Amino acid sequence: MRATPQQQYLYSLGLAGEDQVNRAFGGGLPTGSLAVVEGRHGAGKSTLAGRFAYGLCEQSQTVTYLSTEREFTRFLGQMRSLSYNVQKSLLRRDLLYLFGDLTGSGGDDQPELLSRLRAAQQLWTNDVIVFDTFSDILLYDPTVEALAEQGNYRRAVQRILTFFRRIMATGTTIVLLVSPSGLPRETMEPLRAVADVLLDITVDNSDGRRYRWINVRRFAGMGQQVDDRISFSIRPGTGIVIENRSVVQR
Fold first, then answer.
1. Distances (CA, A) of 99 to 71, 81, 106, 151
2. Which segments constitute the KaiC-like domain (predicted)?
């Protein structure tokens, strides 16, 4: 099927007949873009990224998913619990899942994960690359840490972004999940400044319920209107559910 002009510059998140996620995000992620998703631990960043990966693969896109938190069996178990059946995508190699242990518990005292990934050129040929959680690399990777000890956190981030730009120039979209807690301000500023898509997930517990919001700070290259604030929930056996879509005045 010939792609429409809109399809040529968007990676559809798919599953149009099952949920409203793709519609809520304007038809998909812009190709060759940098998306930064912020939120504290437990906000739902990983679940949202898992939904992105699943839907992208269902649309015949290819995804590399790098996690610093969940080994493969945990990832697969969570995806199954949400009815995101990624087994076929894994077997077809549309989805490549990698776990990077930055704690050194695997016997590696200097887990230079980012340097190793840069050298693994094949990993960067997929359509979308997801880092879950990118802030862990900024905190624990010794290559970054060495510059940070000299007070050059900003320089360390700029080096990484320069590498990312070369990858994005080929049409690859990079999604960074970030927990700002514990990161110096000078680390987040360059990420926020250059992000084409900037999302901030917040959680509000009130009236005995948990409310989750995706605050859309920036969405360059959107296909259709993307609202400023998107309410969603996470339901076992269902996955991400968009509760409503309402434009919030800035």
1. 6, 20, 11, 29
2. 23-244
**Residue 71: closest CA among 112, 37, 102, 35:** 102
Read off the amino acid at residue 202. Answer: T
What is the rounded distance in angstroms from the CA atom of residue 60 to the CA atom of residue 12? Answer: 10
Please tell me the CATH code under which domain 43-102+118-242 is placed.
Answer: 3.40.50.300
The pLDDT confidence band at residue 22, using thresholds 50, 70 and 90, is very high
115, two tokens:
């340097």
**Which pLDDT score is estimated for 245?**
52
Whole-model pTM over 0.70: yes
Alpha-carbon Rg of the chain, whole angstroms?
A: 18
Query: How far apart are the C-alpha atoms of 36 and 191, rounded to whole Å?
Result: 7
CA distance 48 to 105: 28
Token pair of 208 as six digits: 């005995």
**Tens digits of residue pLDDT in 71-113:** 999 999 999 999 999 999 999 999 999 998 766 555 455 567 7
b or e along 162-179 (b: 16 or more beta carbons within 10 Å of the residue's beta carbon)? Answer: eebeebbeeebbbbbbbb
